[in-house]
Amino acid sequence: MLSSSSTTVKSLPLKKRLCFLLKLVCFVSSVLIFCEFLIYYVVIFQCRWPEVKGGAHMDEKETSTSVLKAVILADTHLLGEIKGHWLDKLRREWQMERSFQTALWLLQPDIVFILGDVFDEGKWSSPQAWADDVRRFRKMFKYPVSTELVVIVGNHDIGFHYEMTTYKVNRFEKVFNFTSGKLITRKGINFVIVNSVAMEGDGCAVCRTSEAKLAALSHKLNCSQQKPNRSNKRCSDVEKLPASEPILLQHYPLYRKSDAGCSGEDSAPPEEKNIPFKEKYDVLSQEASQKLIWWFQPRLILSGHTHSACEVLHAGKIPEISVPSFSWRNRNNPSFIMVPLLICWASRQYLQRLKLTVLEDAKWPQSKSNESPTKFSTVGGPGRSIWQGRDLPSGFAFLGLWVAPKQGKAGALEPAPCSTPPPLQQPEPLQTLPVLAHLRATCCRHAPYLTNSSR
Questions:
Q1: How far apart are CA 341 and CA 300, in angstroms?
Q2: How far is residue 410's CA from residue 355's CA, in Å, rounded to a whole number?
Q3: DSSP result, 397-425
Q4: What sign does the dihedral 189-97-333-258 (CA atoms) show?
Q5: pLDDT band (50, 70, 90) for residue 180
Q6: What 3-state class would DSSP assign to 157?
Q7: Nearest to 387 by CA among 288, 309, 327
Q8: 3-state DSSP helix/strand/coil percent for the chain, to nearest 5?
Q9: 181, 193 in Cβ contact below 8 A?
Q10: pLDDT band at residue 410 using 50, 70 and 90 as cut-offs
């Protein structure tokens, strides 16, 4: 009897210790599961696609089916075998993978664009290292059949111009089905793919090929926007494309002096904003920038490379959005942008037929709560809203990607003549605007993990 009771007394502390250890394991496991898995659902679940109003000629159902939901990210910089420590790679790639996969599952975009610098060491990679990087990328950024992934080339993928070779370009094109000068049309919206690294203008072999394809595509788009005219022999045998002003997708931004005029939580740090940009390194040259604008007269330009967000207005009417980096290696608040895109079908003829009454119903996209979209961060909750609905200069209103004159001046919608670009001139000064001021998009951000990186 005495032996039995002494055994019970001795076993009590052991049970308490086991109970404590079990509770500790459960607590630590719960924290890890929440911080490394569930947090991405909690944050991205708060993101909402901005609502787009289609105007008087489109009901709500037609608008919903016509909208193209696009997620845009840039500069993922997957680490390679030279600079990437295994623990560093494991941590960063897990965070990016969870963010991307959670966003796909919750937001269900139609298309995802990655604006270059997919890899950090693609310009140096041996064939074996390249194959390993591609395998890791496909694991991290796998996507369902209902979503399309379009990848643009960046300088870290094939090298800066002086490092770029035909072998590196072909290697990238083979993996990602990338071709500079390629046109992608989805729901009537034209996207032009640009190898901005090859816009050097020095006549190198890759540059000549890339620019020739872009010039040929520009000719087709210009001819497609004109009325049928038998007397116009230059357009008589040209393949007709959807008559829609394109969106340019590229890695390098068009020329701007610096990020001094950029604002918002995703803009460059104050100590970096006034550092002048170098042409052909930080941004495209003035000549290459003006050439792209003349060739395509785009309704929007999307770029990466700077790792920070900014918006500039080219030629007084063409907005460009620099998308912040998606990598924790480059910034402590990596982001992606959600953009619903709506096409104005056959804009010139359609507006003439409706006598421009459609513009009376043009409104800015609104969120379901009738408030401006808000940024979210996994640390600190909702951030401050930085989007203000306002009109573009020069009498243009911007509805999603619906661009049309406010005052009904049909002449402003006339497409450029089907001809070669005019001779190059000095570009107009660029007006820098508050970040994303005109684009009603939602920018979702994730947990911080900061280390600096070169562009």
A1: 11
A2: 9
A3: EEETTEEEETT--GGGGPPPPSSPPPPP-
A4: negative
A5: confident
A6: helix
A7: 309
A8: 35, 15, 50
A9: yes
A10: very low
Question: Is the CB of residue 435 less than 8 Å from the CB of residue 263?
Answer: yes
- Cα–Cα dist 323/317, whole Å: 19
Q: Two tokens at 93?
A: 């790639």
Tokens (6 digits) for 276: 């002048």
Beta strands in 196-354 (DSSP E): 247-249, 300-303, 310-314, 318-322, 335-341
Ramachandran class of 6: left when φ > 0, alpha when ψ lies in -120 to 50, beta otherwise: alpha
Q: How confident is the model at residue 249 (pLDDT cuts 50, 70, 90)?
A: very high
Please state, in angstroms and rounded to a whole number, the distance separating the CA atoms of residues 363 and 397: 9
Specify whether the CB–CB gap between 430 and 256 falls below 8 A. yes
Q: Give me the pLDDT at residue 57, please.
A: 58
Angle between helices 205-224 and 286-296 (to 10 degrees): 30
Greater model confidence, 278 or 377: 278
Residues 120-133 have a mean pLDDT of: 92
Tokens of 410: 């049909």
The Cα diameter of the chain in Å comes to 115
Strand-pair category, 402-405 with 442-445? unpaired
- Pick the closest to residue 293 from 224, 225, 218 (CA basis): 218
Q: Look-up: residue for tokens 């034209």?
A: 190
Q: Please spell the DSSP secondary structure of 3-46, one letter per residue.
A: HHHHHHHHHHHHHHHHHHHHHHHHHHHHHHHIIIIIHHHHHHTT
Could you tell me which of 50, 44, 16 has the C-alpha nearest to residue 342?
50
Residue 225: predicted pLDDT:
78
Q: Which two tokens stand for residue 129?
A: 């290292």
Question: Which residues are CB-neighbours of 142 under 8 A, at least 6 positions away?
Answer: 101
Residue 82 pLDDT grade (very low, low, confident, very high; cuts 50, 70, 90): confident
Mean per-residue pLDDT for 374-398?
28
Average pLDDT in the chain: 74
**CA-angle at 424, arms to 217 and 273, nearest 5°:** 95
* 356 or 143, which is more confident: 143
Contact (Cβ atoms closer than 8 angstroms) between residue 248 and residue 194: yes
